[in-house]
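ingest -> validate -> predict -> emit
validate: passed (alphabet ok, no gaps, 276 aa)
predict: started
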Amino acid sequence: MMNRVFRSTRHVALCLAAAASVLTAMPAKAGDAWASVKKAGVLRCGAALAPPYVMRDPKSGTYSGFFSDLCKDFGEKALNVKVEFVDTNWDNIVAGLQSNKWDLSMALNDTPEREKAISFSIPVTPYNVSFAYNKNNPKIAKGAKSVADFDKSGVSVAVMSGSAQDKAISALLKKATVMRLPTNDDTRMALMSKRADLLADANITNMLLTESHPEWAATIQPNPAVAQQEVAFGVRKETSEADLKVLNGFINQQVKSGNVDKLIKASVQTMLAAGK
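emit:
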């Protein structure tokens, strides 16, 4: 009898321990996002590279870019915690947020597809896709203004795999070959080495390229704009309205004060200096 009681008690204890382990691994419940961050003492920012939004020094591992600056300021000044940047890529930027690997995803395009899985802050900056190319490339007609001018067999377009621009051009291009590459640097090198005829990227990112290399680089900005969207912070779906209000209030203040514009300009200058 005592053995049965002991075994039963031990079984209950093991079940309770397993349940506690599961609960510990689960994301914070609604309304507790920032409370949990404060308790942990650190805000984790999911970082997929996309200059000048999110950049990382390959030698030091230090993050820069205006979204990185905003995430750092939100953690340190609004929540009074340390900030940790968690490396990821654009294929995993949503899944990692859902599985509680970080608390905020930086520089996410607010798309209907992503809204099914996560929620978003208010916009930080607008976004659309442009196409950078070499002015000396005979495949790209002078004065090209629309996608139809280069969506042709034999033309290749480099794009960062899993990014918003990847999804946009995959639905748009019917004849040109899409060259999906893992990083922004890979896509830029593909264009510069002439392995790709065009580079599909965010308008602000391609602006950096043309300003860095005005001697050969040009950009096609289609009209109407391709994938006109807003860029924001991604948060988990269960994030409460109260927590979103805190994040949105911070963003609104940063935009209205002109600080976001200052951070963008500083990020552009950093990117240009690094490319020299």
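Residues 212 and 272 are 6 Å apart (CA to CA).
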